[in-house]
Amino acid sequence: MAHRMLPVAAAVLLTAFATPLASADGGKSSFSTTLNGYQETPVTINSTGSGEFAAKINKDGTEIQYVLNYRDLATNVLQSHIHFGRPGLSGGIVLFLCTNLTPPPAGVPVPPACPQAPVGGDTATVTGTLTAANLLVPNVANVSLPTQGIDPGAAGFAEIVQAIRNGAAYANVHTSKVPSGEIRGALGKAHDHGNGDDDNDD
Questions:
Q1: Domain range spanning residue 42?
Q2: What 3-state DSSP class applies to 36?
Q3: 118 Cβ neighbours under 8 A, 6+ residues apart
Q4: Is 192 among the domain residues?
Q5: Is residue 195 part of a domain?
Q6: In this structure, is residue 201 part of a structural domain?
Q7: pTM of the model
Q8: How many Cβ atoms sit within 10 Å of the Cβ of residue 12?
Q9: By the 8 A CB rule, do 187 and 55 touch?
Q10: Residue 89 and residue 168: Cα distance in Å, rounded?
Q11: Do residues 10 and 58 touch, judged by C-beta distance below 8 A?
Q12: Of 89, 67, 91, whose CA–CA distance to 160 is shortest?
């Protein structure tokens, strides 16, 4: 079926994003993860759904290009985000990947629509580019994040890039069945300091 091939297509797209890097991050700017219900919090979800998320951070850390795939979800996809939180913990939304909610989030560019991915159907794919303009914090609609210390604007976007590099961010797909999040995947590798930049690929 077609949905078995699209994760490869996502890898091709991510490769197309890549350029030679000689920056302070040591060239470790590609991140990928698998999404499933077992990673969800505060309760684990048994879901037929699964997915992949891949991201490429540019040389100066001001842009994230991403590819999100998901499939076999029993109910409609409502929205998908990057959240600020380490594995096993819930965290606030910082960046929209896609949404089907109305009205769309205020104060940021309108995210792309989330395609549906019913059980037995094709894989849904969303691609996009994120910058400081897409950051939700401290948007009044996002009440949880001011307590997490993320700054607004370019400073906050740099903090989220740092969080991704230190295993303190995750991708999440929210559905009608599980509005709090049905499939999730951690980004980066966890560190206890702010200078690590290991990713899931190296």
A1: 2-187
A2: strand
A3: 72, 73, 74
A4: no
A5: no
A6: no
A7: 0.83
A8: 10
A9: yes
A10: 9
A11: no
A12: 91
